[in-house]
Amino acid sequence: MNIESATILITGASQGIGQQLAVYFAKKGAEVIIAARNKSKLNETLKLINAVGGKATALVLDLSNVETIQSLANDIQVSGKHVNILINNAANCNSKPLLDTSLEEIDAIVRTNVIGCFQLCRLIAPTMVSQRGGVIVNISSLAGYNPNAAQTVYSTSKAAVNALSEALRDELAPKRVQVINVAMEVLALDTQKSLGQVNVEQFAKRLESAIYKNEYELFLSPPKKWLMRLYKFLPVISRLKKYLKSYKTRKSVENQIMEN
């Protein structure tokens, strides 16, 4: 896949990681289609892309609303553009324990992170298949590999994204469509970063490399990669780690009660 001549659709491109990915690939020469719910913020991304001499189109998209997903796909088709790379970056990152999450919040998280992602892949992938080539990048999370009790619904939604990537990869590989699952962790949005973090530009370079090398999964650090592998094949380790954490928390609370 040649980035310089590609058309790249990036969701959640009005801010943060999505915005910076859009600017990065636009600087590389790609034609970028940026999509998000907030039109005014999308215009800010357009200004950043124009400032680096890039080419971009902004389209409104709400992944929790199937009508806007269909409208975006129709607008792209009518324009005559063909998406070569789809980056499913937009997500509802509402992170709470299940008992602290309302029914409406559960619905919003699942509709955006799972159903919307499925539906957009369903609408964009056929063009890639007809072109005999394309790339779908699903931005998942470490929480999807090792579910976290403090973010139950979010973790579950990202585990579903992992499953989507794996199944879709097997389905589309014979049709020469590459599917990359990204085990996202905390990124530094500027050059300032804490120990172990990478910034967004470093991540963009890693993602670009994964596309060129036809990789199917992207971890930002080797230790996390092997730890997630270990959790998958030896889940008892993950359970033991969580039990120890819970035990320490409980003992700390008990000690505080005794001191008072």
From TrEMBL:
Short name of one Pfam family: adh_short
This protein's UniProt keywords: Oxidoreductase
Keyword Cytoplasm: no
SUPFAM superfamilies for the chain: NAD(P)-binding Rossmann-fold domains
GO molecular-function term, one example from the UniProt record: oxidoreductase activity
Residue span, Ketoreductase domain: 6-186
Domain of life the protein comes from: Bacteria
GO cellular-component term (any): membrane
InterPro entries recorded: KR_dom (IPR057326), NAD(P)-bd_dom_sf (IPR036291), Sc_DH/Rdtase_CS (IPR020904), SDR_fam (IPR002347)
Entry annotated with the keyword Oxidoreductase: yes
Similarity remark: Belongs to the short-chain dehydrogenases/reductases (SDR) family.
Protein name, UniProt field: Beta-ketoacyl-ACP reductase
Gene source species: Dulcicalothrix desertica PCC 7102
